[in-house]
């Protein structure tokens, strides 16, 4: 999506429509700063196990598998962003991205 000159946010290529006030703090911050860092990444949805990524620039989206909804905890609190080495990983706020990544494949 993008922010238009009149300040409105236009979201496309998905069916996720939420009022601004209903978004988590992480989603609001990600729309303004973090999501653009993931433009070279691909998010792969995991509907059932086994599932895995097939390239280093993918993030595995597990909200449906874990919570049985597409827009659960991961969607509300994490952003898939590209690191300096070209790989992509889930990031949850806090320190600069290169210092705080979550690898959901680890226990």
TrEMBL record:
One of its GO terms (cellular component) is extracellular matrix. The keyword Secreted applies. Keywords: Disulfide bond, Metalloenzyme inhibitor, Metalloprotease inhibitor, Protease inhibitor, Secreted. It is found in: Secreted. GO terms for biological process: negative regulation of membrane protein ectodomain proteolysis; response to cytokine; response to hormone. It comes from the Eukaryota. It holds the Pfam family TIMP. SUPFAM superfamilies: TIMP-like (SSF50242). Residues 1-39 form the NTR domain. One of its GO terms (molecular function) is metalloendopeptidase inhibitor activity. The keyword Secreted applies. SMART domains: NTR (SM00206). Its main location: secreted. Gene3D superfamilies: Tissue inhibitor of metalloproteinase-1. Chain B, domain 1. Disulfide bonds join 41-88, 46-51, 59-80. PANTHER family: METALLOPROTEASE INHIBITOR, METALLOPROTEINASE INHIBITOR 4. Belongs to the protease inhibitor I35 (TIMP) family. This is Metalloproteinase inhibitor 4. It comes from Malurus elegans (Red-winged fairywren).
């Amino acid at each position: 999506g993008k922010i238009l000159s009149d300040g409105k946010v236009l979201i496309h290529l998905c069916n996720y429509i939420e009022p601004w006030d209903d978004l988590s703090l992480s989603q609001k911050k990600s729309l303004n700063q973090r999501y653009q860092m993931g433009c070279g990444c691909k998010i792969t949805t995991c509907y059932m196990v086994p599932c895995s990524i097939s390239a280093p620039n993918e993030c595995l989206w597990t909200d449906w598998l874990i919570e049985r909804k597409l827009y659960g905890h991961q969607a509300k609190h994490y952003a898939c962003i590209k690191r300096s080495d070209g790989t992509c990983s889930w990031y949850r706020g806090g320190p600069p991205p290169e210092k705080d990544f979550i690898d959901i494949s680890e226990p």
